[in-house]
Design goal:
elongated; 8-stranded mixed β-sheet; disordered N terminus; 13 helices; single chain; 10% strand
Length: 350
């Protein structure tokens, strides 16, 4: 039998041992991204961390892909607390954690919801609806996504009483984390959210050095399609330029070195003079012989570029007519020279 005075020491040691084991287990569970605080069925009170009044909300990001990781880095540097990340991929979780010190890691998005007040879903557009259907928010929380194509309503299935939803779409090409963090400065962020959430999202955009804008109802798809043309569409154009450059003996770096200044000059002209006035080239002059020579070369040496060239030429003809530099007859001759379908290698152009 132990003396009673020994008991507190033993109890303290046992308690310390239990706490040590619990901390170890929690660290292992945490590293494995396992939910530490499962919600008993039907219970919706929970211990997610609350910010003090006037403070920025505790924030978590679901999706450690291009956008999620760059936003995590940018928000942290801006003094906006990113406290958790959820990614199903252990390597991406670790990578995020390496860049955003102190962020807790979860494999499951619902486990992250237990931790934070503002939940950012940075997952592919097609994953948003099924993911939102699998999640449940708690009173006082807000959930946003970063898609430019979808409205905030895709998040409705995750809502409970007293929650808010919105969207936060940065007009940035997230090809590389550091470059994207830099590009957020001066970028535009389209936000959606009710009157309580929108000011917070605008504050978040401003913290990143960006400008928040609200789009007219129903205009999001067109706004996003323009963004896709400006980013991915422009890269497709660059790729076509490089393919033609290769026919002329240039490697990719050579094409970028030679045609890059021409692109920048054209963009500068459009900014200074307007888009119509920036149009140059054989179509503005009605040079049908040059157009035909290009089409023959493309059909023979770069047939994969032909449809893009033809689509751009059709648009250039309309632009030149609209600004009055191409007579209707010359425009008709140019239009008639364009193939109505893709040419095979060696096939004559009309
Ligand atoms: N890329 C851009 O330039 C850009 C610009 C503005 C806005 N956006 C928008 O931002 C969003 C994310 O784009 P992103 O380029 O960052 O995509 P991404 O690089 O492909 O990353 C997506 C992340 O979401 C996770 N994920 C995928 N499917 C999931 C699911 N069913 N449930 C939970 N998580 C899932 C991924 O996998 P793991 O869970 O396995 O890690 C990954 O971490 C999209 O809505 C996109 O339209 C993109």
């Amino acid at each position: 039998m132990k003396a009673w005075r020994d008991r507190p020491t033993e109890q303290a040691q046992a308690a310390a041992e239990a706490a040590r084991r619990r901390a170890e287990t929690e660290a292992e569970l945490d590293a494995a991204g396992i939910d530490l605080d499962p919600i008993p069925p039907g219970q919706h009170a929970h211990p997610h961390q609350h910010s003090d009044p006037g403070e920025r909300p505790t924030t978590g990001i679901v999706g450690a892909g291009a956008v999620g990781t760059a936003l995590g880095v940018a928000l942290t540097r801006a003094g906006w607390p990113v406290q958790a990340v959820a990614s199903r991929d252990p390597a991406r979780r670790e990578h995020f954690h390496g860049l955003v010190d102190g962020a807790r890691r979860f494999a499951e998005a619902q486990a992250l919801i237990e931790e934070v007040e503002l939940i950012i879903l940075a997952v592919p557009d097609d994953a948003l609806a099924p993911l939102a259907r699998s999640l449940r928010m708690y009173s006082g929380q807000a959930m946003i996504h970063t898609s430019g194509a979808l409205g905030a309503e895709v998040l409705e299935p995750a809502m409970a009483a007293g929650t808010q939803i919105g969207s936060f779409h940065p007009l940035v090409a997230f090809a590389d984390t550091e470059r994207a963090v830099t590009a957020l400065h001066g970028a535009t962020v389209a936000i959606e959210g009710d009157d309580q959430l929108a000011p917070l999202l605008a504050e978040m955009a401003e913290a990143l050095g960006a400008t928040a804008v609200r789009l007219a109802p129903g205009s999001k798809a067109a706004y996003h399609a323009a963004a896709v043309l400006a980013a991915g569409g422009f890269v497709a154009l660059l790729d076509a330029i490089a393919e033609l450059g290769a026919v002329a003996g240039l490697d990719e770096a050579g094409s970028l070195a030679i045609y890059g200044p021409l692109i920048e000059g054209t963009l500068g002209n459009a900014r200074a003079l307007g888009i119509r006035a920036a149009l140059t080239g054989p179509i503005t002059r009605g040079d049908v012989g040059t157009l035909r020579a290009h089409l023959t070369t493309l059909a023979n040496h770069a047939p994969g570029v032909l449809d893009l060239y033809v689509a751009a030429a059709r648009r250039e003809i309309e632009l030149a007519v609209a600004r009055g530099s191409l007579a209707p007859g010359a425009a008709e001759t140019l239009r008639a020279s364009l193939p109505s379908r893709l040419q095979g290698p060696g096939e004559p152009v009309p």
